[in-house]
Amino acid sequence: MVSHDVNDKTPGMLLVARLHVDLCRLNSAICPR
């Protein structure tokens, strides 16, 4: 059941990671350092 729970959360984590990368790109584009 634990492995099933992890597999079920994996797609969500990938989406969060992709959103995080997009936010970082937008942030760097808006406020370049």
From TrEMBL:
Matching InterPro entries: Cys_resp_CS_actino
NCBIfam families found in the cross-reference section: cis_reg_atten (NF042934)
Name of the protein: Leader peptide
Source organism of the structure: Streptomyces monticola
